[in-house]
Amino acid sequence: MLDEQQIQILPEFIANQIAAGEVVQRPESVVKELVENSIDANATDIAVLIRQSGKQLIHIVDNGSGMSKPDVLVALKRHATSKIKSADDLHKIQTLGFRGEALASIASVANVEIRTTQQGAQHGWKLLAEPLKPEVLEPVQQEQGTQIFIRNLFYNIPARKKFLRSDITEFRHISDTMMKFALSHPTLHFTFHDGDSLIFDVKPDSLQNRIQQLFGDEVARSLVSVDYQDETVKIIGYVGKPNIARTTRASQFLFMNHRPIASKSLAHAIYQSYEHLIDKSQHPFFVLNIILDPTKVDVNVHPQKTEVKFEDERGMYASMQNAVMMALRSESLIPDIRFREQTATNPFEKLQYGKSDAQDVMMVNTLTGEIIDRKPSQNQVFTGSSHSGGGGMSYPKVQSQGLSPNTQQFDKTTAWNPSQMSAFDALFSQTEQPVQEQTQAQNVPERLIWQMHNKYIFIQTEDGLLIVDQHIAHERILYEKALRAMNEQYPYSQKLLFPVGIDVTPTEMVLYKELKDDLLQLGYTTSETSPAHIDITGVPLDIHAGEEASSLHEILEQYAEYQTVRPAESRDNLAASFGCRAAIKAGHKLNVPEMNVLMDDLFKCTTPEVCPHGRPVMIKFELKEFDRRFGRTS
Ligand code: ADP
Ligand code: MG
Question: CA torsion angle for 384, 385, 388, 394 (degrees, to 10)?
């Protein structure tokens, strides 16, 4: 229509709901915004209680400044903030909030009740707000501080509500955020309840003690203090010794001016410092706070974005690496630079371990102290087992339930039985006569099987070549075994002579409780001895001595990770986590009998071709393909 105005300014309520799409993505966002407000209000005591992972209720109580009557009336309006007044302030933000968007957004997607009292006031104010209804304000008697109740989150946005993940996933997001607050503000008192159960109650303390409260004694014992300063930045906190490195990044916390951040480049700097100290597949523990002049960073990014940009990205990288290196070096965990350079050309040294025989040598990595390879002398080849009395050579014994991580463990296991290999034999061009006696094992012709780069197994098959990824293959085997154990109810557990205790984080405890029955089916016999401690009295057979505690930690972590990416059936994820955790790694040298057992177990699987997450276990090449490529026409 000519001259008719089509464009309209959106009503404030709709604008708020649109903003809520960015600010309030899930219950965790509400918890984060509200606790940030309490911290900004200088509260020293902050209590959080959630029900049904925050979907039903999020309740925050603080002892901060409180709000006056005019302030509480305007607090739910869009762009209402007490934290910045001019554009200038934007460049030197000291508070966690400043956009004035959070309360307005939350109030557009939930019912909000605020009770707030200022210091010295006769009474406080209670404000009730429901989307699209007039607000109700009345006086209330209450101590200084603010209480906020958020009820029925997203009730008026069914699409968003449906989009939320399972309760446990939403809980995990909240609990991760609460951990971050507790670690970035150790001088504040936080209590965190999930319904009736107390998740944590941490009193004001040093960062070191707070880490101990949240992660337990073992972690606390394995901390290395970081206290670094150069012209531009201060980096303080703790990094973990290699013994508490984990298979996921769940225990890594990076803060900038007490605000959680993510930075791939800084994470890389930290990993660099751990080079040679931990395996590539492991992730170091760290809680580090970067203290920087607020004018040097831009926090005015997307409300949810944690990835930060530094003015001098390279300088920050170097500072971080220096900070962590110096800390690790002060504990003599890494040799000093000069020593490193001097030996860099040949970090390996031969050490003799036998008494007289010059052949009895082992290779030692002088940088890390690792023993690389134990090279037995000629007459020791294949005679390590106690059953190999028959003179000459015999195969070392291999355990039938998965592989041992090092050859020393062979002695403890049952004999390798070549007749077990029937399923696999079909693959070979020449099938051997079954061998009955172990003493005859030396007569088994060498199979056409070899390992490349301690990672891939090559096997000649009837019509070509098969290449198998050893880690993924073992993962598949253990995954199916774990599922069988859980579904058919025959756990394959070994009792521990001495129970092993582990400290767990609140999140791990919740996951543990959820998975306890399935873990039992899997072979973990456990009991919780306190809200942060679990005793392990039995573990699955595939778990090796010394790995009882770490395996359970890592299964819980891995499970949480899978659950976020792919919220599938819990048993399935648990089996996959177990498989991933307990499987032999790439880089692990296997001998021929070990490879054979692995292949045999693999072909007993119902789906040997792919790993639980769809990665291929093997690649096949047909002879015809080779013929074609070499221009042979057969
Ligand atoms: P922002 O934090 O960006 O200023 P919010 O929407 O989160 O915006 O909060 C709006 C205002 O409400 C804050 O600036 C603050 O003045 C007030 N406020 C919110 N929560 C509290 C609290 N717990 N204690 C005191 N004042 C609060
Ligand atoms: Mg805020």
Answer: -70
